[in-house]
Amino acid sequence: MTQTILLLLALVLANMPWFSERLFFVIPLKGGTKHAGWCLLELIVMYFVTGGIAHYAELSTMGQAFPQGWEFYATTGSLFLVFAFPGFVYRYFWLNRA
């Protein structure tokens, strides 16, 4: 059950940067529109937030967190980018057509 919740949380957090014109849904930007660089910054922060929550979940359920190599981070980073694809498509392909 924990794995399912973490995957759904990662899916939601990966798409959050693409659905708002505010930085982290709170800070309004001066130009009024959020550029792709801000979205990528938010995406990186959300990746680390998801990783922190997953680390805490592993500690609370298993009692210890196992060390991970670069392969783990490359895989989870790529998976997070795949999870972010629907939000990217919505923002840059569907939103501009309307």
Automatic annotation (TrEMBL):
Q: Which Pfam families match?
A: DUF2818
Q: Which UniProt keywords apply?
A: Membrane, Transmembrane, Transmembrane helix
- Sorted alphabetically, which InterPro entries does this protein's record hold? UCP019883
Q: Which organism is it from?
A: Methylovorus glucosotrophus (strain SIP3-4)
Transmembrane stretches, start-end: 38-58, 70-93
Which named protein is this?
Transmembrane protein
Instruction: Say if the entry is tagged with keyword Membrane.
Output: yes
